[in-house]
Model the fold of this input.
Amino acid sequence: MKEKIRNWVEGLNASYQPTEDKSLVKIAELVLILPALGLFYIWEYFNNYKIEYYLYFEFEDSLAVLYQNLMPVIYVGVILSLLLTMLLPYIVKVKYNDGTTDTQITGSQSAVQKKGFPNFLVICVISIALTGFYVLLQAYQFTLVSIVIFLGFAALASYLYLFVHKNIGFGVAILLVFMYAEKRANIDAQFNLTNKPTLNIVLKQHADYPILTEGDKFRYLIYKSSNYYFIKNEQEKRIYVYSISTEEMTSFKTE
Done:
């Protein structure tokens, strides 16, 4: 038992050895994945209303929804990054020691060994990131089961990416963010269905009659994209779609 504990402690203190990766490939893949992720969120959101969003799709919508959902992530990240300051003295110490070398002279050659960050420091950073993810899930009222599943996937993706194989970890991470987008879209749609938000919206073509008024008993805003307002009339069981650019209106029956 003592031998196992000693090996475990030695493993934590051992220098972290990153796996090989082709960063340019990952950046190229990310450029393609992010718009698809935004589109997936909107598509899942509109499925709650039985709306074929592809009829109204515009590329900038996928980027706009990513920006909107990224701001809370940045906010939580900035707050939790303060926790990293607790590790700053140790990081500075490790970087200072990283500049020192152990040299063995054999003839005219010298073998130089440098120490990097220990594994336990990497694990601490991962733990802080998982804490931030937990706060984010709690803020959006994910269920306990969902929180456990998402944290488990996040931990697995981190472990695979950092210690096993970056491509496998990257694949699990992509699966995780799409799962998160699906869950968030459904939570946001259900929140909208429950609260039925209203506000005063007037388009130039419809100036004599606002397309929506604050406090309306039967109509509420479903979603606003870069070029469309989606408004539902529960009394008529109809969804109205107003174009901002052309100021045209279309509508269709819904349950």
Q: What stands out?
A: The two ends are 64 Å apart (CA to CA). The longest helix spans residues 166-195. Residues 196-255 form one domain.
